[in-house]
Amino acid sequence: MRTTEQTIDEILDLAATHFKTAREQLSPDDDFFKKLGIDSLQALEMLTRLENHFNIELPDYEVQGVSDFRTLAERIQARL
Amino acid sequence: MPRVSMINLSRHQSLGSALGEAVDKFARETCLIEADRERENHRLTYREFKEAAMPLAKFLQDRGFKADSRAAIIMTNQSCWLIAAYAVFYSGGVLVPIDYKLTAPESLALLAHSKAEVLVTEYHFWRAITQSEGFKNFNAGGTVIVTGAPENANLRGAIRWEDPEVKGEPVFVPRKRTDWACIVYSSGTGGRPKGCVLTHENYLEQCVSLTSLYPFWPGVRYLSILPTNHAIDFMVGFIGPFVCGATVVHLRTLRPEFVREAFTRYKINYVALAPLILKNLQAGLQKRFDELPPLKRFIFDRMVEVNRALTQKEPRLELSRILFKQVHNAFGGELRAIFAGGAFCEPQMIQFFYDLGVQVAIGYGLTEAGTAITLNDFKPFRADTVGKPLPGVEVKIVNPDVDGIGQVATRSKTVMSHYLDDPELTGETIIDGWLMTGDLGRFDSTGHLQLFGRVKNMIVTEEGKNVYPEDIERAFDDLPVKELCVFAANYVWPERSMLGEKLIIALRLNEGQELTEELIRDLSRRNNSLLNFKRLSGYMLWDADFPRTASMKIKRFALAEEIRERLDRQAAIKEL
C-alpha cells in the first residue's frame, strides 16, 4: 500500500513527464493549473493518465474544485 | 430529409403541457441515452421517460408541491435531471436549475434566495452541502431527493431517488404562458443574486425560433455536454429535442477521450460546446495535420482550398464529408452542426472548422434573454459575426459612436420577466421593454451583429462561465489594506475585443503601508482558494481613496474612470 507521500511523488513524476516540465520545479502544494499552464480539459486528460497509472476510476465530481497536487493525491489515495 | 414531426407549440400554454404532448406523441422513440465512460447506463423511450417522471410528480404533489412551488436541481447532466424537471413542470412548479460547479455555500445561498421547497441533487453534492457551515440555516421543512446514495449513507433527512413509493397518478397542473417556468441564476453567488425569472412563453417562443433554423426530428441525436442548468443545454439539450422527438445523449464524464468516443459510438448529429472544448478539438486536429508527410499535407491543403471555394455561399455537408472523410468520421460521420455557446469564439477557430466542412453555429445570447438573440444561419457563413437576430427577436444598438458601435439591446417574447426580488436591478436592465445586454456591438451592412467588448463590469471565461467581480470580492474581504475593488480589466481600460478578458484587483494601501511579499502571498493564497475560473490575473495599486456613495458603496464606474485617466494598463497591472 502506497503512502500519501508516495502517491504525491508519483503524481508529480507523471505530471512532469506528461506536460514536459522539470520535475524539480513541481511541489505538492502547487496549483497545477498555474504551474503546468493547463486548462480544465488538460487537467481532465491528466486525470485519465493518473487513473491508468494507479488503476482506479475517479469520478469527475471527486476532482471538482481541486487544483493542487496534494489534494488530488488525497482523493486518489482514498480510492487505492 | 427530416420528417416534420415537431409538436405545435402555439397550442401550448406551458412547458409541462408541451412536454406532455411530446412524451405521448413520441412514446416509442428513444428519448435518452446515458453513458458513463465506455459503459451505457441505460436508454429510455419517451414512454419510459414518462413512466419515470410520473411517480416523482405524484410524490411531490403528495408532499404539498403545487402550482408555483419552487424546486431546485443541482446535478450533472443525466437522465434524472430531465425526469425531475418534467415532474416539476407537470406539477405546475417553477424550476430552479443551479450550477453544479458551485461550492456548497454558494449553492446554499442560491437555494435560500430562490426559496426552493424541493431540492433534487446527487449524493456527493448533498454530502458537501450538509457538511457546509451554512447548512444549519437550510430550510429543513423542504423535500430533498438524492441520487446515487450509498446503502448505509446518512442522508440527513433526504430521501433516496429510488425510494418513493406512491399510489395513483399525479394531477397535471396547467399554467399560463405568463406564469414563471424557471428561475435561472446568471450570477450573484457571492454578492447580489441575479435570479432571472423566465416564463413559459419565454421558452416556448425561443424553442419555435431556434428549431426554425435548426430542426430536430426522431432519430436525431444531440450530445449534451454543456451543463443542463445553462440556458443553451436546457433549450437545445432538453426542450428543443423533446418537442421534436429527438434523442439526447448524456455522458457522466467529460473526459475528452470519452467525449470523442461518444461522437462515433452514438453517431451524434448536434452538440453544443464551449469555446474551450472547441479549442481542444482544434488543437488535436491541427496536430494531426501538422504530422502529415509533405505530399499528403500538400494535397490536404489543396482540398481545404477546394472546400472553401465550394462552400463560400452555403455549406455543402455531403461534399465536405467526402473530401474530409477521416475528419468527419472522427466526429461520428453524421454531425450536422456544433453550436458554440456560452462565450466568445475566435473567428479563426470557427473558420478552421468550416474549412473542413464542420459547421460551427455561433450565436450570441444571455440568460436574461432566454437562450439566444442572434445565430449564424450559414447563408453565407461568417466567422467574424455572431449572426443575425433570430426570428421574432429585435436587436438595436443604443447610442452608437462614430463607428456605429454601441450597447446591444434586445426586445422579444424571449426576454425574461424580471430579476427575482430585485425591482431596482430589473429597472436598470430592462428599459422601456428593451433588455440592455451590457455588450458592445454593431451591425454590418448585411445585418450581421459583430461584438466588440463589454460595457458591464464582468468577464466570460472560455468555459462559458460568467464571472462578476462583486461575486469574488468577498474572498479578499479582510485583506489587510485600506480598500480594495475587483474589476474586469476591460471595464477599466475598454478594449474593442471579446478576447483576453481578465480580472484584476485594485488595492489602496493604508497610510505608510508598504506592499510586502507577505501581502502578495496573502493575496495569492486567497486567490488560489477560488475556483480556477474565478481567479484574479493581477493586481494594481491605487493611491487615492475610492469614491463612494452615501451608503459607502464603491462607485465602481467612477473609480474605473479615475484609474483609466491616470494609469496605463500595461504598466499598472502586476501579474499574480
Q: What can you see in these coordinates?
A:
- The complex is a heterodimer of chains A (80) and B (576).
- With 80 residues, chain A is mostly helical.
- Chain A contains four helices and no strands.
- Chain A is globular, with a radius of gyration of 11 Å.
- In chain B, the strands form six sheets. Chain B has a nine-stranded mixed β-sheet, with helices on both faces. Chain B has a five-stranded parallel β-sheet with strand order 4-3-5-6-7, sandwiched between helices.
- In chain B, helix 5 links the parallel strand 5 and strand 6.
- The model of chain B has no long low-confidence stretch (mean pLDDT 92).
- Chains A and B meet through helix 3 of A and helix 9 of B.
The count of domains of chain B is 3
Instruction: Kindly name the structural category of chain B.
Output: alpha/beta
How many β-strand stretches of chain A?
A: 0
Residue windows where pLDDT falls under 50 for at least 5 positions of chain A = none
Inertia-based shape of chain A: globular
> Can you tell me the CATH architecture of the largest domain in chain B?
3-Layer(aba) Sandwich
Overall radius of gyration of chain B: 24 Å
How many separate domains of chain A? 1
Helix content of chain A: 55-70%
Q: Please list the strands of the largest sheet of chain B in the order they lie side by side.
A: 2-1-11-10-12-13-14-15-16
